[in-house]
Automatic annotation (TrEMBL), chain B:
It comes from Pseudomonas farsensis. Keywords: Phosphoprotein. This is Response regulator. It comes from the Bacteria. The modification 4-aspartylphosphate is found at D53. Residues 4-120 form the Response regulatory domain.
Amino acid sequence: MLDAEQWQQLLQGFLEEANDLLREAEDCLLVLERSPTDSEAINALFRSVHTLKGSAGIFSLEPLVALAHHLENRLMQVRDGECALDDALTSLMLQCMDELNVMVRSIDPHTATLAPHTPRQAELLAALEAFTSSAPHAAQGPAVWQLALRLDAELLRNGFDPCAFIRYLARLGDILAVDTLTDALPALEQMDPEQCYLGFDITLSTEASRETLEEVFSLADGFYHLTLTCQTAPDDAPATASLRPATQTLAPTPASDEPRVVHTASSLVKVAAHKLDELINLVGELVISTAGAHMQAMQTGDSECIERVQAVHQHVEQIRERALKLRMVEIGETFNRFHRVVRDVSLTLNKQIQLHLHGGDTELDKTLTDRIADPLIHLVRNAIDHGIESAEERLAVGKPAQGNLSLSAGHDSGMIVLEIQDDGRGLNTARIREKAIARGMLDADSLLPDSDIHMLIFEAGFSTAEQVSNLSGRGVGMDVVRSAIDELRGTIEIESEPGKGCIFRIRLPLTLAIIDGFLVGAGADRFVIPLDMVTECMEAPATINGPLNLRGKPLPCIDLTTHFALGVPTTSRRNIVVVSQARQQVGLIVDRLLGELQTVIKPLGQLFRHLNGISGSTILGSGQVALILDIASLFRDLQQRNDTKHRPSAAIPNLSGEQTCNGSAI
Amino acid sequence: MAKTILIVDDSASMRQLVRISLASAGHTIIEACDGQDALAKLTGQKVNLIISDVNMPKLDGIGLVKALKARAEYRFTPIMMLTTESEQSKKAEGQAAGAKAWMVKPFQPQQLLAAVEKLVG
Amino acid sequence: MASLTLRPSAADTPACLCLAGDLTIFEARDTHAALLELLAENPGPWALDLSALGELDSAGLQLLLALGKQLGGANTPLQVLAVSSEAAALIELLRPTGLLLDLQSVCAG
């Protein structure tokens, strides 16, 4: 038998494949909902379910096989034009997909076992069954076939057992009658007991096609003669007549479709994610050690050596780029899931919503696509639930009844930008303010700009829902969205216009593995600032009192040496690195500027996971450890101190707050 | 009903695929890596089906079929040959030797299971 | 080969042929020969006890059908008094007219 590890590998492969197949199937189903005659989608859907069933069979996952099997039968009828794919059937099939998803998730990854049939599955199976009988075009019952099987005298001697074939037939349907023909059987003395004298006339009631029935015996090619006649066909029409036209209309598609699919399959290699991670980690080490070698070479001053090291460096760069691209996947796959989300949510809330997707070909790190999906779903639900008005409300304010929701992805200055835009009522600033005050998050007399008030919805325990609807009652707040995005070193901002709609804009780094950084020194320590956040550097004035004036705008500052309690500055000529995020700016006061570098992020150990202001570490070419600054959390720190210090006097909102943070708190 | 099935193939991964597919249906699997190994492992015990690759080192599939037909206890044992499209020319030779059931690689596990059921089910 | 035992007839019941072991293509030739020998001694009528029968395949069934034809002619089925589960499954599937399965007795294991 297979050893445990191999079995694990096979199962792991199956689980991944199953997820892909189900997602693909769901996409197809949603395509079909919009264009029910898309034969390519029908075929793709059928293939996915069929493949899933086949693979599940290997692991004897009975309940999964059973549901997939029934689904497949129904799909076969849709494909053959015997059953119309209407809304009700689509909904039912989507429910089946959900159940299949649940089943796949509940497969024990160690034992490859699945809990036995649940009532929910029985319900779905029954519903699938019922659909056939109630649907007007689904009258395809089993047909009754007459099989006249005549056998070659040498059949038995060649290891074929006709009984085995007949037993197999019994699996395809109900054997109504078997006539075992013994006319050719000679008297006992004359018979050769190894020769075959028997023949069979079989009456079989089955849904299987003529091809399937013919296929049953094909292994014994040359040793039998089979005559197949169909006695009753559905709708009193000969089976051949009812099936053929449907197959013909579909025929061109599989023909043109199949080779392409085969091609795609063969040109893809599936690699376990952890292997990629290992590779990328090693490439990261390589980047670091190359930097070390480069440094060493520079110190020796040997031009030959420097040249060689530079060549190595270039190649390492190329490898790094390619390696990172291996992890890149198009976000389109994640986006496509939203058809389903939007469909379900808008049905539940009875709102008409058109979903627009843009930039599905934008690539980002697989880890990011996986981890951003849930926050995105939450934002989309939120937009539909709270943002987009009901049809009546929309008509009343002169908007088209159908709401629009768009999801887009694109690149902007080295970041991925994801936007969720709706044309609903926009955020209700007054209401958010009210709630925030009621929850003690805000002083009644504070004068925060609207944009800052909007950001309050991301605070823990905040909810603006007039009533907890079916959707928002999930116990997940917007604060979860915010922290998920923070974890991905991303940012989120809100652009809301009352009555016009709202945009949630998420910015994410392209990858989590490597960072283009700006290295600075504070005290004896080194810090890395994500380069794309650095806007400029300048010399710090000898004494800093209050916010600096940067081209007429106040610039709050954080002194890294004091912020991280690193002792006294090592130099009197200090520098300011101006970093910006979502139109906010802050100056980081450091001792030394050490230049740009590209480095691999090492996650912090469990112990330091919650360290504020630090998102990771890296090892420099010299072997020294540098800490990567978490700019987003520094901004939040600043904001919070701002708010606390800010409340009593609201006289000069922008400046006074920063003064406080600069002077004492930080 | 559970059967005893001998799988003969020099490719360990092919044997693995066959074994997993069939073991899942409850069959008992004996493995051999070529014809010689197969003959050595067949020591009179009952085997319901032999599934064999054609192209193998030492003793190939067709040689194995000939050898089996000469042994009384296996002379009627059904044999299914696994072959690739490019080996179709071997089919006539193999059938003459006594291997009548053929299956073309690659195949889906459920195809294999179905074939086994048709032959010995 | 399957072992054959012929229990002589008692009162007005036919002689009973007990078949034990497998009856497949592998055993067909030897069993055929043994049956011919038994028939030479006792030309019937016989009934069948298949309760100890192991594997039964098409060749085995064909032999039983030929035996039935021999004993009772084409129109008199051979009575099966007891049957093993495996043999019963095949007979149930094919319901050959040449074998009469007494359902009351088909509970032997």
